[in-house]
Amino acid sequence: MSAVLEPFDAIDTGRDCAACEAGDQVADGRLAQPSRLSVEGVSLDYRGERGPIRATHRVGFDVLPSERFVLLGASGCGKSSLLKAVGGFLSPTEGRILVDGRPIDGPGPDRIAVFQEFDQLPPWKTVLENVAFPLIASGSSPRKAALEQARHWLARVGLADFASAFPHQLSGGMKQRVAIARALAMKPRVLLMDEPFAALDALTRRRMQDELLALWEQERFTLLFVTHSIEEALIVGHRVLVLSPHPGRVRAELNAQGLTPAQRAAQANRIERLLFGGPAAVDAFSEPVAAERAAALN
Fold it and tell me: Which stretches make up the ABC transporter domain (predicted)?
């Protein structure tokens, strides 16, 4: 199912940039492939004091095998709620979510999440034990095999020398690498990442983005990534779904794959217009503008 554009939103649909044309060029190739993940008209409600509160309204999108798909929007647009629903932790009020054509009915090892919190690693376990734990607990591997797989994945994320360390001895970026290794060790059908680098400083965040892309080049996992950063969305994603807030609705689905710097800047400006309205004649990646926009999105 392709993205649903709500008719009551004023959506910029003009093909006024080379980046938009680049997205059209890859669209035909996507249509023939079966989806790894399908979100079909999903609405999510929370229980409030005065009744249900709608988090998302009839959101739909498809993610292909080995694709990096980004959900982008301000706080309150429901992007994290959507990721939790894909993980099986929230049930849609309407619509459905499918993995490899099968509806999900709860959490499962085919969908593993990495969050931004650094305390997602049990502090009493070593780094090696943290990575091996899901394999052992799920019955996927006996302990000896799980530890071997954990060593393999720690090496893949550059932490082989820290296998005996405890989480409190690691930096924030290193903890996130452990969390990524732990998730990928389970070989999920879809890797879910909810603003995993948001709590890191700017330099570490950029390095972690590069490391994630390098790991994807080796493993080609399917990724659903949540962020409120326009720059991060265009760096990490093949495609970006822009969500409007209160409740979250699809504003646009944009291409971010194979863009030149000029095309990436054009897409960033287009996202600026979708999120904030009006012309975006400034460089969305400049440090002052990026900081201002990040504050606004939060």
Answer: 37-270
Edge-first strand listing for the sheet containing 239-244: 111-115, 190-194, 223-227, 68-73, 239-244, 249-255
DSSP string, the chain: -PPPPPTTS-------SHHHHHHHHHHHHHHTSPPSEEEEEEEEEEEETTEEEEEEEEEEEEE-TT-EEEEEE-TTSSHHHHHHHHTTSS--SEEEEEETTEE--S--TTEEEEES-GGGS-TTS-HHHHHHHHHHHTTSS-HHHHHHHHHHHHHHTT-GGGTT--GGGS-HHHHHHHHHHHHHHT--SEEEEESTTTTS-HHHHHHHHHHHHHHHHHH---EEEEES-HHHHHHH-SEEEEEETTTBEEEEEEE-SS--HHHHHHHHHHHHHHHH-S---S-TTSHHHHHHHHHHH-
pLDDT of 246 reads 86
Cα(155)–Cα(295) distance, rounded to whole angstroms? Answer: 36
| Residue with tokens 């504003």, as numbered in its chain | 251
223 forms beta bridges with 68, 191
CA atoms within 13 A on the CB side of 37: 29
Which residue carries 């607990």 as its tokens? 137
Structure pTM?
A: 0.81
Domains and CATH numbers, the chain: 1-100+189-228+236-254 (3.40.50.300), 120-188 (no CATH)
Contact status, residue 88 vs residue 106, Cβ threshold 8 Å:
yes
